[in-house]
Design a protein that fits this description.
Layout lengths: L17 E3 L2 E3 L5 E4 L2 H4 L8 H11 L12 H12 L5 E5 L2 H18 L7 E5 L8 H7 L2 H4 L9 E4 L4 H7 L4 E6 L2 E2 L5 E2 L2 H14 L2 E5 L23 E4 L10 E5 L20 H14 L4 H22 L4 E7 L2 E6 L3 H10 L2 E2 L2 E2 L3 E4 L7 H30 L1
Parallel strand pairs: 3-15, 5-6, 5-7, 7-10, 10-11
Antiparallel strand pairs: 1-2, 2-3, 4-12, 8-9, 11-12, 13-14, 14-17, 16-17
Helix pairs in contact: 2-9, 3-9, 10-12, 11-12
């Protein structure tokens, strides 16, 4: 079918008419188990009644006023995010990549108003992913994504992940901060060890640098804590959020301590749509649910149940699954066959999953996932593994012959 939508996505030829909880439905009535969640966005699943109520109620009042005026919903959401985190200030935007751009600007501005305007460079890590705008792509450093768009934005020094000595060597007189994801989602669901994050915190404190956490994918309960870094005991100076914050409505944010934010004065940053009343109503409703007593405990229980069941599947099919990794309900299966084969096999099982780097398929169920849906997911993964194991065993026999 011809489309006038710019062909920048290799889209799967399936469209969904409606969703409910962890399930999506096509117009023909086919039902898919959604372990993509809009790539970690639909944290409360599809058509959550509290989100629908919040959006509908606000839609009948006011949608957009711009940031020339106070927005009470934004003030309330900022108060709540700061009360639940290390931060003192929040800026609302519309996406994860905007949140990263703002976080980079905050780190650079902090250095400038601290009398060190020469400090503008940010240390980042191989295998990371921070977004698709030019600066975020330059922070990511993936040549494939940068190819054809001219020179990368200046100011990023990428080092191999996990080697603190390389980080030390990368720090120079122009370094402003260090940017890292507590769990590298796109990069293969790699959980960054707490000891490494602590070492980065110590380096930032020693050298007067800003520690920036990219929690665009991990924030708002995905790992079983409200923010992934809270599992490590390491606090950043600046943090980027998006995805689950709006539960499906586009919203992003970057947060900072009062010290980190001291340069962000009137006129230094802006967004026409950021913090609009519709987005704030939905994001506040998301927090209402995620911060209910026991909600995050249930996420941890579901994550443990899923991880245990996946470990059993791995043991049954070592020729297909090399490793089960992840934190909370951000899970990954590192595969032996190409990851595209598993994504296709699971889609044949009417289960939706996204691929990641390091030959990993991500499992990103909504945080409201129940025992029955976890069992259903594991059964579908098991059947997909059985077919892949047979296919590759046959291919190996034919190759040997």
């Amino acid at each position: 079918m011809n489309s006038h939508v710019l062909p920048t996505y290799a889209r799967v030829d399936v469209a969904f008419e409606r969703g409910e909880g962890a399930w999506l439905y096509t117009a023909a009535g086919d039902r898919y188990l959604d372990f993509t969640s809009g790539v970690a966005v639909n944290a409360l699943g599809h058509a959550h009644p509290k989100l629908i109520a919040a959006l509908t109620e606000q839609a009948q009042k006011v949608w957009h006023v711009s940031n020339l005026y106070r927005i009470p919903g934004a003030e309330r959401l900022a108060d709540r995010l700061c009360a639940a985190s290390f931060a003192d200030f929040v800026f609302f935007c519309n996406s994860g990549t905007e949140a990263i751009e703002g976080a980079i600007k905050m780190a650079r501005k902090y250095q400038a108003v601290s009398g060190k305007p020469e400090r503008y460079r940010i240390i980042t890590f191989e295998g990371a992913f921070h977004g698709r705008t030019l600066a975020a792509l330059s922070a990511t450093g993936n040549k494939k994504y940068l190819d054809g768009f001219g020179p990368p934005v200046e100011g990023f020094d990428q080092v191999a992940y996990g080697d603190i000595e390389l980080v030390k060597k990368a720090i120079g007189p122009e370094t402003a901060g260090i940017l890292i994801e507590p769990v590298m989602g796109e990069g293969g669901v790699r959980v960054v060890p707490s000891a490494f994050l602590r070492a980065l915190r110590e380096l930032c404190d020693k050298h007067g640098l800003m520690l920036i956490f990219d929690e665009v994918q991990t924030g708002i309960g995905r790992t079983g804590a409200l923010f992934a870094h809270q599992l490590t005991g390491v606090e950043p100076d600046i943090m980027a959020l998006a995805k689950a914050l709006g539960g499906g409505f586009p919203v992003g944010a970057f947060l900072g301590t009062a010290e980190a934010a001291k340069g962000m004065t009137p006129g230094t940053h802006g967004s026409t749509f950021g913090g609009n009343p519709l987005a704030m109503a939905v994001a506040n409703a998301v927090l209402d649910v995620v911060m209910e007593d026991g909600f995050l405990d249930k996420v941890k229980q579901s994550a443990l149940r899923l991880k245990q069941r996946l470990a059993e599947v791995k043991d049954r099919y070592p020729s297909v699954i090399a490793e089960v990794r992840g934190e909370g309900l951000l899970m990954g299966l590192r595969l032996v066959p190409p990851v595209s084969e598993m994504v296709d096999e699971l889609r044949a099982e009417k289960m939706l999953t996204p691929a990641a780097g390091d030959n990993v398929v991500r499992l990103l169920p909504p945080l409201i996932i129940g025992e029955e849906e976890i069992s259903e997911a594991v059964s579908r993964i098991d059947r997909a593994c059985a077919r892949l194991a047979q296919t590759h065993a046959r291919a190996a026999k034919q190759g040997a012959a």
